[in-house]
Specification:
The chain is built from eleven helices and eleven strands. Helix 1 crosses helix 11 and helix 4 packs parallel to helix 5. The longest helix has 24 residues. An eleven-stranded mixed beta sheet has the order 3-2-1-4-11-10-5-6-9-7-8, sandwiched between helices. By secondary structure, it is an alpha/beta fold. The N terminus is likely disordered. It has a domain of about 150 residues: Isopropylmalate Dehydrogenase. Helix 7 links the parallel strand 7 and strand 8.
Length: about 325
């Protein structure tokens, strides 16, 4: 039996999008939008004034998909590329040449796009490790919640988690959170030598104290209940500014993060916007299962990050 998740409509994404309306649309290279949902997502984001897309892929196929789906491409430019691998490489090239400030996944596989992104000589790597964030609009939570990393880093080391956490903190700051609160998740809230996630959590907290992790309030290890619920933390004797009010949940590994994000989506009726951080530009990972709200929110978040990056480059 197939079930459809009802819309959440809690308004947090709409508030985020509204804050972007005063910003200038950002140029975006959309890699291989050869499926109706992927193509419509780029066109919808353009209609909302969030991005100025350039479609990269087989032009005849893109126009065929648009015609069949009733999508008006208007004056949106198309850069012809024969197949998905070539489209990924060409889209990355547009970013490297400064012709696009965002990279958007179309209907190609994620590993095809990220393969072009991490290519040693022609990609978009920086000194930071690349990581993924889900921005979750959970109806039962009082603000947008960032979950990381649930899509790229399978079994991150402590050094990996340092970059994953800092990527998420920088994103939260771009979205207007003055001092993000980070809950580092584990199965328990005490340090246990037999549970590596608790050791990493304790180390990250000490790194935060010593300035290796910056601009945030970091707490952990915290079990999910006392991270999200102030009452649960109080019952367990935990005194923390983070408990009950985190902006960011840093998960132990990809499996835990992926399960958590999907539980929030399908059991708590959350919407999730996805973004890849740590590259030269924000990367929007779309999915055919994404709602219109999620796709537009992903573009809005990426737009904010791109504008923040402009300011940083201008100040350098």
């Amino acid at each position: 039996m197939t079930t459809t998740k009802p819309p959440s409509g809690s308004g947090k994404y709409e508030a985020l999008i509204e804050r972007c309306r005063a910003l200038e649309a950002v140029s975006a290279a959309v890699a291989h939008p050869c499926e109706a949902t992927a193509l419509a997502g780029a066109v919808e984001a353009a209609a909302h004034g969030l991005i100025r897309p350039t479609l990269v892929g087989p032009e005849a196929k893109i126009r065929e998909v648009a015609k069949a789906a009733g999508i008006d491409l208007g004056q949106i430019p198309i850069v012809d590329a024969p197949h998905s691998h070539a489209a990924a490489a060409k889209a990355v090239e547009l970013v490297r040449r400064g012709e696009a400030e965002l990279l958007v996944k179309g209907s190609l596989h994620t590993d095809e796009l990220l393969g072009a992104v991490v290519a040693r000589d022609t990609g978009l790597r920086t000194a930071r490790r690349i990581s993924h964030v889900f921005l979750m609009d959970v109806p039962t939570y009082h603000k947008v919640l960032i979950v990381t990393d649930a899509a790229i880093n399978i079994a991150p080391t402590l050094d990996d988690k340092l970059d994953i956490c800092q990527n998420a903190i920088d994103l939260a700051i771009s979205l207007g959170v003055a001092r993000p609160k980070v809950a580092i998740l584990a199965a328990v809230e005490t340090v246990n030598a037999k549970m590596p996630a608790t050791i990493d959590a304790a180390a990250l907290c000490k790194m935060s104290e010593r300035g290796q992790l910056t601009k945030a309030l970091v707490e952990g290890p915290l079990a999910f209940d006392n991270a999200i619920s102030r009452d649960a933390a109080r019952i367990k004797g935990i005194t923390s500014e983070v408990a009950g009010d985190p902006d960011i949940l840093l998960v132990p590994d990809l499996e835990a993060g992926n399960i958590l994000a999907k539980q929030l989506t399908f059991l708590a009726n959350a919407d999730s916007a996805g973004l890849v951080l740590g590259a030269r530009v924000p990367i929007i990972l779309t999915s055919r299962a994404d709602s219109v709200r999620s796709r537009i929110a992903s573009c809005a978040v990426a737009m904010r990050v791109a504008h923040d990056r402009r300011r940083q480059l201008g100040a350098a």
